[in-house]
Write a structure and sequence with these properties.
heterodimer, B: 5 helices, disordered C terminus
Chain lengths: ~575, ~120
Amino acid sequence: MHKRQEKLRFAVVFFAYLFILLIIFFRLLYIQVLNYDDYIKLADSQHNLTLKLSPQRGSILDRNLKTFAMSLKVSSVYAVPRVIKNKSEVAAKLSKILDIDYNNLLEKLNRDKAFVWVKRRIDDSLAERLTQEPIPGVSLLTENKRYYPNNGLAAHVVGFAGIDEQGLSGVELIYDKYLKGQFGTRSMLRDAKQRMMPAFEFEYIPEINGYNIVLTIDQVIQHIAEQALDAGFAKSKAVGASVIVMNPENGEIYALVNRPGYDLNAFGNADPEAKRNRAVSDYFEPGSTFKIITASAAIEEKVVALDEVFFCENGEYKISRHILHDHKPHGNLSFVEVIEKSSNIGTVKVAQKLGEKLLYEYIKRFGFGEKTNIDSPGEVAGFFRPLKQWSKLSISALPIGHEIGVTVIQMARAMAVIANGGYQVNPHLVDKIIDKNNEIIKDIEFEPQPRIISEQTAATMRGILKGVVDNGTGKSAQVKGYSTAGKTGTAQKVIPGEGYSHSKFIASFIGFAPVDKPKVVIAVVFDEPRPFYYGGTVCAPIFKNIAEKVLKYLDVPMEEGLENRSSVVTDKD
Amino acid sequence: MRLKNIIICLVITTSICLAYVRQQVEIVKLSYVLRDKEKCLNQLVDHNKTLLYNNMSLKSPQYLASMLEQNKMVLSFPEPAAVAKVRVIRKAQQQFAKTPGLSWKTNLFDVLVPKAQAASDKRE
């Protein structure tokens, strides 16, 4: 009996142990075999940490390597709603510190999420306050933010980048792929307190920071142009205005200004109108400044002699039931005087001698009706009808800058052809792309461009355009110490459905200096200036102000005999 | 004898293991120190960048122009007659170069014209 009891006890204990062992075995089987993948993933997520390394966006620099745009590290606030116990209290505290809407924040904190942004890119002082007074469930993350140390200087050239540092406008957009860089990764072990252990690093692919973009813009020249334009813009009460300062030899743009402008550090608050790069994205009828194309074509094709006389019909010329007017009646004028005094009738008579086909060919050759391919987004080709669509009146409109839409950059490029001796140029804003050690990654170079007009024609045109400033409509563009040349323009604006306006004008002056060896081409265009609207009155003085300072800045020696001259105020075309 | 050998082997193995563990612990400790220093360095670099940005903002033409306007100061390019062209003989140049704190190339002429100022910044 005793032995039997002993056997029973032994059996109970044995089976109890066996049962427990079987439970452990099946549990192990469940963990190690059946759910192996899940548990490995869970363990990996607890031990291993893979960080995504954000690259630093490249800077945008001027031609002397002064900074236009750069990225800085700033703090952003995020919350983990699941961890926060008293949500209304946290929302009240945060909304007070960060100056954000309480209800909006509370709604965010009430979401069943592991991560919500509270406020991104906060000031250093606020970040410090949050570090000193920590709120459970609320933390700081470091992010990059784009800063523009010159605020609105060259705003339309530089452009801006969005909250996630993607380029949205200007050079920031066009060269985004060079600026943004490449993400890197870093994988390492974490300890029990979830701290990183750099000693146990598995993989490290370093981030590649973005390259720096070097512009052709010169910060000093840009500032000179902006100051001069601002003064004129305030006086003229215009709707808009643009200035381009360009090197006529290679198309490098030293300055590009549009008004109204905006602050790049607060681009979100700017009016969309102010963000438009008018110099490349708006086209207009140029009026008399376009006469340089007609005159160049006529000289190149030898259809006129410089001293050839044209009867300017005393200010009224009837063409197919339409009467063409001059701003001032003229009788007989030589070809040179026709351009100097900006006679519409005289220019049309020159164009009639040239013929429609040749006029069309030269307008195309100068690049009108096509984009200049400047490295700025939103460029338009303008408006220029094919020869087949010309009306009988076209030959009396196109030579004087009507029936055609041009951009400021196209006009500056056309003037550069005359200034540089007859070659087409590629206007561009970016000089090169460099890395952090200033090693050149990409040099922006262009193939030599075709000749548009002969050296002789260009020289003749330079002489005629000098006459416009010395004796004609552009006297206000005379610069102390330097010879200048250019052409004024005043065009009535076209109102859709109504025709030409009698009260809205586009005023322009496009010129270069010094005349013999031009260093800069300057184009000044005003949209609806008031009360004065003549190019010679509104734009030529701005050209003068810019040219005077820029030529001195570029160390261009003064010309003998011109040191004491001062500009004369004109009030016509 | 046999037991003695076993004990010696065990002591050596244990010592090696302990040394290895100690080494690993030191590496981990060092990595924490490194991580903290790296964090500190990054913060300093970021702070330096912020200061550079502030410096650039203060040197921006727009800010300088507004300051001049605020203080009612008008600056203009000097007339050619007002510029004294300095011709330095070699001996004087050598003497100047020896003067402590003065760099011949940067300090004298770079302050005269804005272009030279720009070139100076480029060198920096």
